[in-house]
Amino acid sequence: MLAIRLIAEPDRLDVLVLPVRAADSAELVPTAVAPPDGTADEAAALVPAARLTGRAGEIHTQLRPGRTPGRMLLLGVGDGGEAAWRTAGAAVARSTTDETHITIALPLGVTPAAVRGFTEGLLLASYRFRMTEAGTAPTLDSVDLLLADPTAFETTIATARTTAAMTHLARDLTNTPSSVKTPQWFADQVASAAADLPDLRLRVRGPAELADEGFGGILAVGGGSASGPRLVELDWHPADARTHVVLVGKGITFDTGGISIKPVPAMKLMRKDMAGAAAVVAATLGAAELRLPVRITTLAPLAENMVSGAAFRPGDVIRHYGGTTSETTNSDAEGRLVLADALAYAVQQLKPDLLLDLATLTGANAVALGKRTAALYSENDQLAADVLAAAEAAGESAWRLPLHTDYVEYLGSEIADLYSAPAQGAGSVLAALYLREFTGELRDRWLHLDMSAPSWADGDHAEVSRGATGWGVRWLLRWLASVD
Predict the structure, then answer these.
(1) Side-chain half-sphere exposure of 324, counting CA atoms within 13 A
(2) How far apart are CA 102 and CA 143, in angstroms?
(3) pLDDT 10s digit of each residue in the chain, 484 long?
(4) 213: part of which helix (H) or strand (E)?
């Protein structure tokens, strides 16, 4: 990631960035540390001359040959709120790829929220995933933030850096091709990332342990693959924790659809079908690094849904952890089967205060809400409101959808307790209702996020880079920091 320094006096002014806010007419923002003589006057004159609006992310570049700084960037920061500064930070990262170092003069009286937003935008937008170094162009590698009192923002920068680093980790895990990313590989990555963090405990169950303990859903979905399934259980348990949260993330490391095989266009990006597991693991590691005072147990049920003679069949009845059975007539509705095991285990064995799951669960998520917004389901109004507030603050989009009681009848099976994949429509809602059946006494403290759509971006947009987005990590860390 970018190296970021907090400084009160600039010692390298090749490129200087000055903020411009949107008002009745755009105006240069007074900075905490005055720029070199004459620079502020020149910048103020340029704002109307260049017809700047000050909208967040707008950039005007002024060349100044033979002077210091040699290049000046006027950066729109909108209304000066955190979201606007996040957009501005992303714009700087994308427009300075020919530079190796820049200095940014932050406003007089800048808030910690603005500094966090700018830093997150800068770091997140600079992310790139490549499995080769060939042809990689030089990129920005260091940034100085010019402030009157740098020490006042050290904690803010540290939090932003951890948030970005863990989002990068979730993106890396999700972007990695499935030729590499087997369930065991994913578990190994978690073990490596957790090794240097105190108060973290990791347990990884393999096929034999899953069979002994009755995780029938995970075993069924993973049974068709030469790479056996795993269940990762990662526990962050600080001494001062008063609340226990369980996070569950869907971890299908590749999804062919199984015997109900997908068409090629729908299959080619199925390396992303473990983005929920990546998000909850990365958020837990981030919480440990930030020493958040909340106990978190993360469950990542991992499996490859493959086609073979050992694959589970449409019409099979699966016995989940705890004994509930599911009739499944669509092996491409596999994510809910592994999640059901993990949810039942969490309720029966871990008994947390709150239970959340994140999953790239249905294509219906995108049909209902488009490509940037997750579908949120919960019967707990306060929990839903808190998560939505954290998502908005973090710049991640979610929308609450209803759990219609009259759809529950569609889950009825003649030969099992539940029918796992009803085909009457409202696919995202029905999947959520199915999962709810495994939440037991935690039904009123459970929240589900269908995040298939926002887990992947077709192109760069603000702080989101093309490919895996790491959706969920940012809001989870904010929400977990607020849990009492």
Answers:
(1) 26
(2) 5
(3) 899 999 999 988 999 999 999 988 899 999 999 999 889 999 999 999 999 999 999 999 999 999 999 999 999 999 999 999 999 999 999 999 889 999 999 999 999 999 999 999 999 999 989 887 655 555 788 999 999 999 999 999 999 999 999 999 999 999 999 999 999 999 999 999 999 899 999 999 999 999 999 999 999 999 999 999 999 999 999 999 999 999 999 999 999 999 999 999 999 999 999 999 999 999 999 999 999 999 999 999 999 999 999 999 999 999 999 999 999 999 999 999 999 999 999 999 999 999 999 999 999 999 999 999 999 999 999 999 999 999 999 999 999 999 999 999 999 999 999 999 999 999 999 999 999 999 999 999 999 999 999 999 999 999 999 999 999 999 999 999 999 8
(4) helix 207-213
> In the structure encoding, which two tokens stand for residue 264, read together?
């090629």
Residues annotated as catalytic (active site), given as ranges: 262, 336
Query: Long-range contacts made by residues 402-408, C-beta under 8 angstroms, separation at least 24?
Result: 402/377, 402/429, 403/377, 403/379, 403/429, 403/432, 403/433, 403/436, 404/429, 404/433, 407/433, 408/433
Q: Is 462 left (phi over 0), alpha (psi -120 to 50) or beta?
A: left
465 in Cβ contact with 275 (< 8 Å): no
- Cα 211-216-217 angle, rounded to 5 deg: 135
**428 and 345 Cβ atoms separated by less than 8 Å:** no
**Phi (first) and psi of residue 319, to 5 degrees:** -100, 115
Give residue for tokens 């929990």.
383
If phi over 0 gives left and psi between -120 and 50 gives alpha, with beta otherwise, what is residue 363?
A: alpha
Per the DSSP assignment, residues forming a β-bridge with 102 are 143
Query: Is residue 231 a contact partner of residue 210, using CB atoms and an 8 Å limit?
Result: yes
Residue 265 burial class via C-beta count within 10 angstroms: exposed 0-12, middle 13-18, buried 19 and up? exposed
Instruction: Give φ, ψ of 290 to 5 degrees.
Output: -85, -5
pTM of the model: 0.96
Backbone φ and ψ of 264, nearest 5°? -55, -45
In angstroms, the CA 147 to CA 6 distance is 7
In sequence order, what are the residues at sequence separation of 6 or more whose Cβ sits closer than 8 angstroms to the Cβ of residue 188?
Answer: none
Question: What backbone torsions phi and psi does residue 303 show, to the nearest 5 degrees?
Answer: -160, 155
270: amino acid identity, one letter:
M
